[in-house]
Amino acid sequence: MNYRHAYHAGNFADVLKHGVLAWVVRYLQQKEAPLGLIDTHAGAGIYDLTGVAARKTDEAKDGILRIVRQEAPAALLSYLEVVRELNGEEIKSYPGSPALMLALARAQDRVLACELHPEDSEALRRSLGADPRLRVTTGDGYERLMTLVPPREKRGLVLIDPPFEEPDEFERLAKAFIAAHRKWPAGVYILWFPIKHPSELSRFQAELLSAGIKKLTLVTLDVARPEALSKTGLILCNAPFTFGTEWSAALTWLTEKLAQGQGARAEIVPLTGD
Ligand SMILES: C[S@@+](CC[C@H](N)C(=O)[O-])C[C@H]1O[C@@H](n2cnc3c(N)ncnc32)[C@H](O)[C@@H]1O
């Protein structure tokens, strides 16, 4: 377990993931009913972009720092507002997924976060744990997920954002999602992954489709980054019906802003015909 998100906080993959996450939360909040927001691989909560880990890779420079002060498309505004509100003039801190969920949560919403790494889960508790709307568990997020769905609110979302350190992560992700979806088919799910080998993604998609899961949408972003992870993706299940329309403009904008070379591109592909 070597992966620490502090080295990658605010990079281009976070921008896509967190932009979509914030938009979905705000969409679901159009109804007053409370939400259960579940984060299976939560990380440390708030990241110091001036710290040793972040500065070692400088990934935020080609991610959030490229766009945070720009005039962005509507779909990205909730996300960017949280990042701006956490900071003063200078952007020194970055909200990870549980911090973002908590910043967007209303009084009636709950955030249920799980993190396996004891130091990161402790950091998460330290930075955000005083908020009674947040519950942090230290442990395996895939196992914990099965006890968290459906949340008592019966509405909400699940973010599954594994580190992809192990070769079987796609299989574990598929298994956990399929099992959780069986227990809670109405939830919105956001699954994150890196795209290193297109065949892995094809196998992953095929597995979800053969489980009979409907309403799946694939989003990919390739920033044409030389010699490093360049392409990332999300699969959403039960995405709000306006997702494709609202996010196509945002993705075009993000691709232009985050491109690191020729051939940067992004797309939204409905995987099921519903
Ligand atoms: C990509 S990072 C999460 C980033 C976070 N979701 C965010 O967007 O700010 C993946 C996290 O999963 C944690 N992790 C690894 N294996 C896990 C497991 N089986 N269950 C829960 N957390 C795990 C890692 O320690 C790491 O903090």
Description:
- With 274 residues, the protein is α/β, with parallel strands linked by helices.
- It is 39% helix and 19% strand.
- The protein is built from ten helices and ten strands.
- The chain has an eight-stranded mixed beta sheet with strand order 5-4-1-6-7-9-8-10, with helices on both faces. Strands 2-3 form a two-stranded antiparallel sheet.
- Strand 6 (156-160), helix 8 (169-183) and strand 7 (188-194) form a beta-alpha-beta unit.
- Helix 1 packs across helix 4.
- Bound molecules: S-adenosylmethionine.
- S-adenosylmethionine is lined by residues 3, 5, 17, 40-43, 96-97, 114-117, 120, 140-142, 161-163.
Notable characteristics:
two-stranded antiparallel ribbon; binds S-adenosylmethionine; 274 residues; single chain; 19% strand; Rossmann fold; alpha/beta; 8-stranded mixed sheet; 39% helix
